């Protein structure tokens, strides 16, 4: 059993739902998991492994995600850390946009003290009705498609892979 922290940065709530799903799968696998928003400033010192994820706005993961990683670098050192990003460019037909999507988790990895032990991109959601007029304009500029594109099988598979790899490491 590994004590695990799943920290997330969200604006619309989708990354939280994915973080909670990862937490549920890790718990099922026998780990002791806490799922917390980075804004609550969780301390990785109390955990043996960490997962951190963020949504994406206008080509960048949310500043709160990177800021938490930077603030907690000292306690992330020496712990396995998995990173994930939740975005919509992964669904694009444009190869450049898809390549950009694959690189979003690297923005979190870049501020980790050591390379992440796992990294992945998940498709998210976009509901214009729950966004401000400014966000709707930015979303249109970024060609964000409307709808719920969460891929729960992909989330479950990644969480189970993390659980297996942590079991082997210990
Ligand atoms: C204003 C806005 C800008 C966005 N910009 C991007 C973007 O640049 N690239 C991308 O892949 N997805 C973009 N998205 C899609 C979001 O990353 C997606 O909606 C994600 O599910 C948001 O996660 P959250 O609900 O946890 O905040 C954007 C969405 C909005 C509303």
UniProtKB/TrEMBL annotation:
SUPFAM superfamilies: Flavoproteins. Residues 4-163 form the Flavodoxin-like domain. GO terms for molecular function: FMN binding. It comes from the Bacteria. It comes from Raineyella antarctica. This is Menaquinone-dependent protoporphyrinogen oxidase. InterPro entries: Flavodoxin/NO_synth, Flavodoxin_dom, Flavoprotein-like_sf.
